[in-house]
Amino acid sequence: MSKLRLGVNIDHAATVRQARYRDDHLSPHAEPNLIAIAQAALAGGADGITVHLREDRRHLQDSDLADLLSLPNCRINLELACTEEMVAIALRSKPAAACLVPESRQEITTEGGLNIVGHFERVRKTVSALTHAGIEVSLFIDADPGQIEAAIAVGAPVIELHTGAWARAYGVDTEKSQREFERLKAGCVQAHRLGLIVNAGHGINYVNAKIARQLPHIHELNIGHSIVARALLVGMQSAVAEMRLALS
Ligand code: PXP
User: Fold this and answer.
1) Cα of 161 to ligand 1 centre, how many Å?
2) How many domains does the chain have?
3) Which listed residue (12, 59, 202, 219) is catalytic?
4) Considering only CA atoms, which of 80, 75, 144, 84 is closest in space to residue 115?
5) One of 25, 52, 119, 219 is an active-site residue; which one?
6) How far is the CA of 21 from the centre of ligand 1 (A)?
7) Domain that holds residue 18
8) How far is the CA of 58 from the CAs of 13, 22, 62, 89, in angstroms?
9) In the predicted model, is pLDDT for residue 1 greater than 60?
10) pLDDT of residue 155
11) For residues 122-136, average pLDDT
12) From 54, 79, 227, mutation site for ligand 1 pocket: most ligand atoms within 8 A of C-beta
């Protein structure tokens, strides 16, 4: 079995910087430095860095993406909405991987993943354009059989299953968390059977990581909030190393 990959989402490091430097993120005083954060995450055992350039630029800025892309030996997974502006940025900047995520209410399914079924043609064209640019495309979706089939139909090689509903219920509502976990497991099996690479993420923390890693056929977990929160106490490198341990 190949080693489970860990993508570390550093958006919330940018959230901290923007809390003070929203209008001046290029100031020499602006901190934390996202490049240093990414390097510390890699030193702690991250296999790649995940960032979400949002349409409202609430955390990551365009210049951050350019800076991160210039880091040697750093695989960048860019999360983006399926809009003309964002797709143009991805095609220009060519990250190794791109994950299409919903940003507006109408694109969101019940649990919060991208509604491929409802936006089939737009997603299909975007997957095709990004793939032709040499970018590995994944789709952030619920573990819903119809959405998984649609991921295949639009030509995506990878999906990222939304673990948020399970993670929210974990340790709070046993019945719901078990039900959600079974749904995730079934989604992993279905997607793997159809030939998709299966990633997962959202709401994974130091407590539930041991369970998340048991999902069948999982290739990569993307984890952000919990690691950045832990980094406030122990530093980014140790926070990532602790997560690696939790996933081992
Ligand atoms: N995967 C995707 C597609 C996301 O949008 C996010 C949140 O930005 C994550 C993973 C990480 O979620 P969390 O911050 O809850 O770990």
Assistant:
1) 10
2) 1
3) 202
4) 144
5) 52
6) 23
7) 5-246
8) 12, 8, 11, 17
9) no
10) 98
11) 98
12) 79
The mean per-residue pLDDT over the stretch 47-53 comes to 98
Single-letter amino acid, residue 96: A
Query: If you take atom 12 of ligand 1, which residue's CA is the nearest one?
Result: 202
Integer Cα distance of 244 and 248 in angstroms: 6
Quickly state the pLDDT bin for 109 (edges 50, 70, 90).
low
Residue 103 has a pLDDT of 85
Residue in 6, 8, 9, 142 to alter for ligand 1 test, most ligand atoms within 8 A of Cβ: 9
- The confidence score (pLDDT) of residue 29 equals 96
Which ligand 1 atom lies nearest to the CA of residue 222? Answer: 10
* pLDDT interval class at 233 (50, 70, 90): very high
Q: Is the pLDDT of residue 166 over 90?
A: yes
Query: CA torsion, points 51, 54, 56, 60, in degrees to nearest 10?
Result: 10
Active site residue 79: yes
Question: Residue 126: which of 147, 154, 157 has the closest Cα?
Answer: 154
Global confidence as pTM:
0.96
> Which of 12, 25, 59, 79 is flagged as catalytic?
79
Binding pocket residue ranges, ligand 1, CB within 6 Å: 9, 11, 52, 79, 99, 101, 140, 160, 201-204, 222-226
Integer-rounded Cα radius of gyration of the chain: 17
Q: Verify cis geometry, omega within 30 degrees of 0, for the bond prior to 102.
A: no
pLDDT, one tens digit per residue, over 167-212 is 999 999 999 999 999 999 999 999 999 999 999 999 999 999 999 9
**202 tagged catalytic:** yes
* CATH code where residue 72 lies: 3.20.20.70
